[in-house]
Design the sequence.
């Protein structure tokens, strides 16, 4: 089974004081790991945020965008040291951010990946485990197990 999180960039304790700062720090790492131009990534992410904040509730945000020339889905996950305001539907600050970038022409693939990520992060128990994880390897394991259990 394809794991959305197998090659994901994971940051266990991202230090950011704002939504924009958190997006930039995570986009920097995802761009570097996937040979992308970070300014192009940020432009797409910020344009998407203008359409509506990507906070989904429960302290989780899922910023995403489609980028021309990208060959495959690029995923990043960050657990923030301190939650930031993110304009989520429940008004709660965000401390778990899953960033997803997809090829421009991959609309259906992007939606499927967002749905998979959303299902993996929707349970309070999974979010609690992610918040308690000791390092990036533990976070990857939790995300992968969560995706696998949702697919079963």
Sequence:
């Amino acid at each position: 089974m394809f794991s959305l999180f197998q090659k994901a960039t994971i940051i266990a304790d991202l230090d950011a004081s704002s939504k924009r700062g958190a997006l930039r720090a995570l986009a920097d790492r995802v761009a570097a790991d996937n040979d992308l131009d970070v300014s192009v990534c940020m432009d797409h992410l910020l344009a998407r945020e203008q359409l509506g904040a990507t906070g989904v509730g429960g302290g989780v945000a899922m910023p995403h965008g489609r980028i021309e020339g990208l060959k495959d889905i690029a995923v990043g996950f960050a657990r923030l040291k301190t939650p930031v305001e993110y304009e989520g539907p429940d008004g709660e600050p965000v401390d778990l951010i899953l960033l997803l970038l997809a090829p421009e022409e991959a609309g259906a693939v992007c939606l499927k990946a967002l749905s998979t990520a959303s299902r993996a992060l929707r349970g309070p128990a999974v979010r609690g485990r992610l918040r308690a994880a000791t390092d990036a390897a533990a976070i990857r394991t939790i995300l992968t197990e969560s995706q696998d259990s949702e697919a079963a």
Residues 5 and 144 are 6 Å apart (CA to CA). The mean pLDDT is 89. The chain has one domain: 9-151.
